[in-house]
Structure formats: C-alpha cells, structure tokens
Amino acid sequence: MLKQLRNMSVEILKLHCPSLNDISKVLKKRLIGNFATVEVNVTDCPNLTAPPFHLAAAGLCGSTRIVDVGGPPYLLPLPQLDKVYNIADIAKRVNLPSAFIIGAGAGPYNLVGVNSELIPNLKLDPGCPTGCSAMQSYISKVDLGDGSCIQETINSTDFSILGNFFFSEGAQGKVLEVKAKERIGEENLISCIRKALSEEYGDQPVGIGGAFLIERGKAKIHIMSDFSKEPLENDEAVDEWLKFYEMSAPLVCLTGECVSADPGMDLRVEHTHCFSQHGEGGHYHYDTTPEEVAYHGFFNVAECLYRVDRPGETHDLGRV
C-alpha cells in the first residue's frame, strides 16, 4: 500500500456568506432564464438518508466548508502517482474530524487497481472502529473489456490526485431547495447556479455544495479511463481519453464545490459526481433530454474554504 502524503500545504479562505433568503432570490432570477419551471425556496432539510437521495447523513448543516484537494495538474499531462490522500486525514487538517462528506474526486487507484471516479458519501466518526459511522461511497470505472460503466461501492477513505468536497456536520437545518424542469437555456444546473452567484457577488467568493436528483431524463456523464501512458497535452487528447456515456435518471448528483469566484487559489470552481441505484455513475456534465429533465436539489452555503496541497502549476483543462 502506498504511503499517505504527510507534508501538505493548507490554505484557508473565509467565504462571503449571504443569507439563504438572499441567495434564493439570486438563483431564481437566473434559473428562470434557463429552465421553463423553477422553484427556489429556503426550507427545512429533509432526511437525506432516505430514498431517493441515500446520503450518509441526514442534513447539510453545521460547520460547512468546501475542501479543494490537489487538482488536475497532478493528473495531466501525466499522472503523479504519489498523490494518494485520505479523507479522514484531510478532515483533521480542516478541523472537522467527524465530518459528513460529499462531492467528487479521483478514486484510490492503489485499491481499485485502475484510475476511477470517486463519488464520496460518508460520515466520519473517529470513535468508530472503522473511523466511519456511515460509508456509502462509490467508484465508477471503465470496464476494460467492453468499455461499459462499472459502479461499485468502496469501503475506504482513500482517494488520489484530486478531490472537491463539501464538508458539514451532517445536521438538519435550513437549506436551499431548488426545483427546475425543462431546460430551455444552454447551461447545466450547477453552472447556472455558479454564474448567478458570480454575477451578483462579483469578486466576493460565495461557495455552496449539496445534492440534487435528476428525476427524469438522461445526462452526459464521463468516466476517466485508466491512466494514460502518453502525455495528455490538449483538450482533444483529454476528450479522446475520457469515456462519455448517456446515463438514465434517477441519478443522485453530489456537488462538492461550486464557487462564484477564484481569488487566485487555483480552485476547481465546480465539480459534481453522481451515482445511482441502477449501477450508473460518474462525472456530471449536463442533461441530454432538455424537454424531459427534472431536477430537485438541496444546497447549503459554505462558511469557509480550505485549499489543500495546491499544485505549483495551473492549467485550463478542468473537465476531469
């Protein structure tokens, strides 16, 4: 087993935190131009452990923070295979050792055997023998035989290369509820939300995370192929390396990071992975059936952002 990274930089940024009521108005104004039917409300968070969300904790409240670890420069043009992390270790570094964690990342290739998409969904508890009170994470990988999607549960807190996570205490409380149906614009749900926040708050970074369900329709999803032995130097090479699929609802999508502005920290400003009960999952791009699609999500505002092990080099290939 590979040794976990120990010497990592940790940068902290206090985020701008508008009220949920203010954000709900901002989002509704922008979403109305992108979807035929829109509802945005502040509501009590339902029990998200129940179907159809199947999350590892009931809510999205308490000590909310976005945690951005590593990044695509550790993957491209060639992977840095020494970049193996542990979510429990990261949680201690960001001062929330009992965190509920959702989001998106790269799976632990040291355990999976190949590169994969990580869909983290877990509640840490240092007092439990396993370190978790609930572990409901998945990985999605490409079948090396026929190229199909393989979604599997994973009982590990390891990940590699990059991760974009929404941390909270998993408590229930007030959250944003977003419903949107029939896409009439060009933006996916999270891009539309992020751009609404960016237009309203400018260079004051606002961050949100949460979970949304694609209730009807289909979506474009990718899964990273196994690590390339040839350098991936441009967009075309990356697109050929990624495997794209059209996956069917219902899909549970976990947004680990949605930040309105990057104050020079080389952030992944939006990143969402999804899983399903029917065995499909990966990196969410957008819905492919705009007339049919229906979204229903719950989100909360992050109080702060932690940038962990920021790469020394940046890049503009943010699709992985």
UniProtKB/TrEMBL annotation:
It is found in: Nucleus. InterPro entries: C11orf54_DUF1907. Coiled coil: none annotated. Pfam families: DUF1907. Residues 26-308 form the DUF1907 domain. Monomer. This is Ester hydrolase C11orf54 homolog. The lineage of its organism: Eukaryota, Metazoa, Ecdysozoa, Scalidophora, Priapulida.
